[in-house]
Amino acid sequence: MRVFITGATGVLGRRLVEQLTNNGHDVVGLVRDADGETAVANRGGTPRYGDVLEPESLDAAMDDGIEVVIHAATAIPESTKPSEAEWAHNDRVRMEGAKNVLSKLPDSVEQFLLPSVVWLARQPDGSVFDETAERHPDRATQSLAELEALLLNRAGESTVDAAILRCGFFYAPDARDTLTWGKQLLDGDLPIVGGGLLGRRDAELSVVHVDDAARAFVAAIEQEASGMYHIVDDEPVTPATLFTAFAERLDAPDPGRIPGWLARFFIGKVTAKVMTHPMPTTNEKAARELDWEPTYPTYREGLDQIIDQWERDGTLAELRSDTPVEAVPSVDTAASSS
Q1: For residue 189, is it within any domain?
Q2: Rounded to two decimals, what is the model's pTM?
Q3: How many domains are there within the chain?
């Protein structure tokens, strides 16, 4: 298959380029600078310059013969407490960018894939939910809910199949959040954010290693999938369990606690809500229909891989020092904008 990827230089996009080319697919990655060009080329893809917010730039980038498009471009805020302007820019990259890409689709395109997030459909009562659950978007995911609806409606009116892969919270050796967690745990600065007045109520979160998320997209392409899929680990985990296990592997101090109502003043309402509102779901449909299962079935195997990678590439030594460590933006921690 000939696959076109926006956000090809993000934490998910880089893996998509590499895994798809390793599986024999022809990949075109949208880039905006020389670093992006190198990142795509080094992973076996063909870099093409363009910007999803500049539709005329997509004419040359999206050549006839492309069969699959993955819109992985976002502009997830990097600041600790994102402003309304930052979220608005992300909305624009996500929605306007998608509309621009859709307007330029060559006639050869058969499938359009979108990375989404499972907490878009978490239930108010915290119960387990699946792909059929009603959406409950917040400020960060409202545009994503609108884009999901747009793609599904468009797919029903055209010959292009739409596959939406809602991913759990991303973690990986090079993901921005994971690197930040590691550094803060080593410094004793990462508290567990919990619900309730004293922060003692823990929420079950669905997470997924980014390697496994990318593998799910490859599977969805090769299975010619359409519709909605939840891409998560086999076992939901609370922030308390996740961060404590991470600290143990880092030989770092045990993290303390902070209630969500207080944490929102430091990390913003969106992040505090993600950490304190349950989002338990399963990957049963993806396993059944995509023939996919996670290489890292739980956070335990995933954290072991991260520590092993950090030890081998020197990241752990950098985290223990004052040297800044380069991170790749994650899917809502999704991909970089291109």
Answers
A1: yes
A2: 0.92
A3: 1
